[in-house]
Amino acid sequence: MRHRKSRRDAREIALKTLYQIAVAHVDQADALSAAVDDANPERREAGNWDLQLAYARRVIQGVLKGSDDFDAIIARYARDWDPDRMPTIDHILAHIALYELMHETETPYRAVIDEAVELAKKYSTDESGSFINGVLGSWVRAEGPEAPGHEKGE
């Protein structure tokens, strides 16, 4: 449970950092610093802070590097929805989850999707959780661990 909680905290830090970069055009280092400052002080003192921060940095870098690829995936699986018109939070959450699904494969895909849906419900619109779930679920079934020829995720 501790690992899952630390990943959730790291995802929130990544989300807040990437949001500041996208919306306010804040420098990456400054955006990360602000997101870290915004994090719950008790969690920063919990003992696994270095792991959380390292994971958040990895996610941020992966999302920034893979943005065009993730947009193409979203466009392919977002039925009747233009990625350019989706809420910024949803866009970033989909990118974070796609990065994790494709590159942080030690985390079960269901956990990645569930976390993205929960963050969408917390930070975005009422429809965002369903939208994120639909896009990510479609990708998993077509190209991810549930696609023909791949082992099933846990």
Q: Tell me about the biggest sheet?
A: none
Rg: 15 Å
CATH architecture: Orthogonal Bundle
The CATH H-level superfamily is: NusB-like
Estimated helix fraction? over 70%
What is the total domain count?
Answer: 1
Query: How do the helices and strands follow one another from N- to C-terminus?
Result: HHHHHHH
Give the number of helices.
Answer: 7
Distance between the termini: 16 Å
Uncertain residue segments: none
Report the principal-axis shape: globular
Averaged pLDDT, please?
87
Helix and strand content put the structural class at: mainly alpha
If you consult CATH, what is the topology?
A: N-utilizing Substance Protein B Homolog, Chain A
The tally of strands reads 0
Question: What is the CATH C level class, in words?
Answer: Mainly Alpha
| Relative strand content | under 5%
How do the helices and strands line up, and which of them pair or pack?
Layout: H1 2-24, H2 28-38, H3 41-44, H4 49-77, H5 88-103, H6 109-123, H7 128-143
Helix pairs in contact: 1-2, 1-4, 1-5, 4-5, 5-6, 5-7, 6-7
Q: How would you describe the overall organization of this protein?
A:
It contains seven helices and no strands. The chain is an all-alpha fold and 154 residues long. The protein has a single domain, classed as N-utilizing Substance Protein B Homolog, Chain A. The longest helix is centred in the middle third of the chain and has 29 residues, at 49-77. The relative contact order is 0.13. The model has no long low-confidence stretch (mean pLDDT 87).
Question: In a few lines, what is going on in this structure?
Answer:
The chain is mainly α and 154 residues long. 74% of the residues lie in helices and 0% in strands. The mean pLDDT is 87.
